[in-house]
Each structure stands twice: as structure tokens, then as C-alpha cells.
Amino acid sequence: MKGGVIAVIAILAVFQLAVQHGQAVTCGEVDVSLMPCINYLIGHDSSPSPACCAGVKAVKGMASTTADKRTCCGCVKAAANRYTDLKDEAAQSLPTKCAVQLDIPISRTVDCTKIN
């Protein structure tokens, strides 16, 4: 009986992950993930924090399809344009400094429709 309950719980956990994986990316999710990066991006910190890099990794994980990548790109672009004091060099170096290969450029001017 105990083994059966554990098996059911495991199956439900896998199902929950599968359902969540199929959901569309939102700008709210992207913004929350990258919020810890603001101090680095506006020049208050000399390097991105561990929380920032975890957020960059989270965004990479969200962007699994072309549609998701374009959505994330648009969200990142909109966020970049909200911060007038954002340092372009810091934004462009963020993925490298966090050791994440991000397929989404962090830029105010990127054409997100060209993201594959």
C-alpha cells in the first residue's frame, strides 16, 4: 500500500511538471527572474549576483521554443527600455558573466522577430 501511494505521488509530480512546461512564457515571469540583475545592469554592482545569474538561467529555461524565445526577447527588450540608466555593456555581458549561453540578446534595439 505504501509503495502504491508513493508511485501515485511520483506520477502526479511528473504530470504537474509536464503541465507547467507547456505553459506560455509571460513578461511577469521574465521580469521577476531578472529583477535581481538591476543593480548590476545600472552600474551599482560590479558583477552580477548569484540570484541574478540564477534568474538568467531561469530565463534560458523558459525559452525552449522559438515562440518562447521571441516572447522572452520582447519582455527583456521592454524591460531594458524601462531603465534609462541601463548600461548596454553590462546588459550585453550579463549572459557571459553568468556563464549562461542565452539565445536572447539583452538589448533595447534587437528585432525579436528574427530570433530562431
UniProtKB/TrEMBL annotation:
SMART domains: AAI. The keyword Nucleotide-binding does not apply. It holds the Pfam family Tryp_alpha_amyl. GO terms for molecular function: lipid binding. Keywords: Lipid-binding, Signal, Transport. The keyword rRNA-binding does not apply. SUPFAM superfamilies: Bifunctional inhibitor/lipid-transfer protein/seed storage 2S albumin (SSF47699). Residues 1-24 form the signal peptide. InterPro entries: Bifun_inhib/LTP/seed_sf (IPR036312), Bifunc_inhib/LTP/seed_store (IPR016140), Plant_nsLTP (IPR000528). Residues 27-112 form the Bifunctional inhibitor/plant lipid transfer protein/seed storage helical domain. It comes from the Eukaryota. One of its GO terms (biological process) is lipid transport. Plant non-specific lipid-transfer proteins transfer phospholipids as well as galactolipids across membranes. May play a role in wax or cutin deposition in the cell walls of expanding epidermal cells and certain secretory tissues. Belongs to the plant LTP family. This is Non-specific lipid-transfer protein. It comes from Erythranthe guttata. The lineage of its organism: Eukaryota, Viridiplantae, Streptophyta, Embryophyta, Tracheophyta.
